[in-house]
């Protein structure tokens, strides 16, 4: 039995490139999946929102995604659906284990269904300066890739 999922949708923000404590690069992104259907009664086209998927791409795949993809790009992602636990703060010192589902990308790239894709020059990747409360302590910020892209 395989655990493979493929989704096509639009990036809700630029991919965010980070590193683990062991300096392994990865990119996180969110893909909005929707489809247009024709209403049988009115014959009008309607947008149907199917959902949002969190995607993690590791190592070179993550670096390439952060360099080449931008908010709004239509992408196709193939990977494994993963379930990850986290501790939710309920207040008064109480916590609860909850779970989130995300796609661990094996492959991803621009979708050519509705537009042609032109290879772009690599761009520097924005590095978050302040991850704020609730940030994942296991990851560190990533230095900009400007030198590597040149």
TrEMBL record:
Pfam families: SSB. Keywords: DNA-binding. InterPro entries: NA-bd_OB-fold, Primosome_PriB/ssb, ssDNA-bd. Residues 124-150 are annotated as: Disordered. CDD domains: SSB_OBF. The keyword Lyase does not apply. Signal peptide: none annotated. SUPFAM superfamilies: Nucleic acid-binding proteins. One of its GO terms (cellular component) is nucleoid. One of its GO terms (biological process) is DNA replication. One of its GO terms (molecular function) is single-stranded DNA binding. Homotetramer. This is Single-stranded DNA-binding protein.
